[in-house]
From TrEMBL:
Residues 483-494 have a biased composition (Acidic residues). InterPro entries: Quinoprotein_ADH-like_sf, WD40/YVTN_repeat-like_dom_sf. Residues 495-508 have a biased composition (Low complexity). Residues 473-511 are annotated as: Disordered. This is ABC-2 family transporter protein. Pfam families: ABC2_membrane_2. SUPFAM superfamilies: Quinoprotein alcohol dehydrogenase-like (SSF50998). The chain crosses the membrane at residues 23-43, 206-232, 252-280, 292-315, 321-344, 780-799. Keywords: Membrane, Transmembrane, Transmembrane helix. The keyword Transit peptide does not apply. Gene3D superfamilies: YVTN repeat-like/Quinoprotein amine dehydrogenase (2.130.10.10). The keyword Translocase does not apply. It comes from the Bacteria.
Amino acid sequence: MRRLWPYIAIIRDSFHAALSSRILWVAFIAIWVLLGALAPIGYREDFTTTFRDRDIDNGGRLKAMLAAGIADPSKANTPVGKIANALPDDVKRELRKVGQGEDVRFYFTTLADSLNSLIEEESWYDAEVWKSTARLRELRELDELGPDEIDETLRKRRARLRIEAAIPGVFESRSARSIMLTYMGMDFPARFAVDKTQFLILLNQIVVPTIINWLLGFILVFLGILVTASIIPDMLQPGSLHLLLSKPVSRWLLLLSKFVGGCAFVFLCVIQLIVGLYLIAGLRLDVWNARLLLCIPVSVFVFAVFYSVSTLAGLRFRSPILAIGITCMFGAYLVVVSMIGGFFDGFVTRPSTIHQMTIAGDQVFATTRGEGLMRWDAKTDQWNEIYESDALGRNRVLSPVAIDDSTIVTAVVRGGRFNPFGLGGFDLLVLDEANQWRAQPSLRLPTATQQLAASENGVFAINSSGIAVTSKQQVREAMGEPIDNESADEDSGDSESASGSSSERSSANQPNSWLQKLASMMGAATAGFQDILPSDVLLTPPRSVGINATGDTIVLLGGKQLSLLSSNRSPQTSEPTSGEAWHLVATQTVGEELPRFAFLAISGKSVLVATDAEQLQVFDLDSLQPTATVPLPDRLSVVSSIAIGDESRFAVLTSDQRCRLLIQEADSKQWTLRDPLPQTDIESIAMDDRSSTLMIAHDVDQVDLLDAETLKLRRTLRPRLSTWRQIDRFVIGPLRSITPQTSELGGTIAAIVSGESSFEINRDEVGPVELVRYKILEPVLSCTLFIAVLLTTSCVYFSRRDF
């Protein structure tokens, strides 16, 4: 122990030197001021009563429904008519123009404010009229309360729910209670309300990591280098160095002691900031997240990367100025490498990444994250682009589905990448082998169609508020024929320029063409399609739809409500046999909290529901009664899930980019989540029932085709790399590998704080979630190796150099 005392004394002297620095005290004051500014932040939880612009999921449908409520006399005494006619006069005047076919733009904030004005005064409400609406259980319970049992907040909540019931398929689902941020007891001036789940995600995955990244990863590192750059040059002064070496210390341990002591500056700053944030989050926001304290060693570790460069430069040049300059140049190099890597990720790798797949005969098709459509060419072993992938393109390509062994259908949504409802009507496109896979227009799709599905009975078009179906025969007959039913332009989903519709002309032979146009804007079935969703079934976000192979059974999730629909159709025709084409068989509530997303799959007599919960839920197809709950391992989340055949088997893609099988054991009837398949870095999974093929896309654009029964490999698709992909793999990849990944340590911090291994981007509710995985260990290992190499070099240089 005595041998350690000299080194401890050196480290202690470094602490004293840091405490005597004026820059350190300036940093201390800045941290205290920041914590003092954050301390008054608080929150309150209240019922969700008002509408925000982001609550509007389908602005075009909302505008069309309100315009129809004013322009159509038959709707004056309906819920939507009551609401529309109670709106402010200026809004009604613009809605009348919409009903007359004019091109009128509404900001989402205008629509939200207009609806909020109705919440204050409910003269528009008529209990008898509202009996025809599909009401949530919460609304039914509030309607049963007497005047003396309901306060003002609950009254406003009830009014909002009544508006949502009158205008279905328009609004995003939100929790009944919201978190409102406050400052010094006052609500934030901007309308900012999220539920508790969103609040925790926002705080742990965005706010706290951003504060730590900027303050600790940039500002404090720079200040720390300014303070500590002189430690090594000062040590090399003749009088100082001789005095230190006169003690029983080795040179390399002396240097390491100085290095550890130099980290004292950042440690003293970090511990105050992190502990302060921890206490504010706990005392003011009731979020006691002990993982936040683990950011202290990580932040010091980030500084150690830069200080190792400063140490070597100080040894070599004995100048604090040169040490600071070289360290800043090293930091600039890291920024440049990070920017180049981000450029290749965003403009080379991501646009080529497979998003969805399908098979038609022996032909394999895939869509990409860059909204391209590709067909595999077995002769050249290459993907041939039918629609080119584009990192900055505006259009969106719907995931194709096969209607037979030589034909697929898809659609191109103009402006659909940034607005899921597109900028206008769009056609169902048919690609078949006879026409060399060139797209030919067929039926006009319902407005805001987001997903296509095919079954034995026909082709389904699923939009933001309903489901429509057509027969395969009608699709083929309409190829190349003009479509009379023109659809209006849909809203721009951007709340800043929201909600415009073009005044496309309807057929002159239709006297009520303006009503048809409004119906089209609302997402009603177009010519050739038939709406199948019963009036008492709502398809609200988060929405997901599962259709069985024969197409006579549909399970859908809207919000928390799981619904089972059955068809009265004859298997040989597309016409209903009697009465309603589809009817509601059973319903079930999924969980107590509103999920952020959901996936449905039907296999045999079982329905798999995968949400953001850390478990999989299995329901009986006939009754929707829950039959099993299977936990996910290692805090994983679901990216997508599909059915494998009709034997109660499912494939589940999880956030670790691995595919696992959920199987019901024949002997015990228990559900088991099997170990992951060998493939890693999986981007998406798909199933072709006709050929019993499980498709697994991995490593950007490679695909494995497996036998669904035996899971044996049937075929592999390995395309050649493009020139830019080769540069990325053989130049940029190695460059990023040998460079300490300090910028990626932000992901390590976010993973530590949030306890999650990934975060979601670009969720579209109809396909695999795009997950960005936090690089947790990789940057730590690369930075550790870099520090070890530079410190070893410094120790060797210091030990062998005669100073």
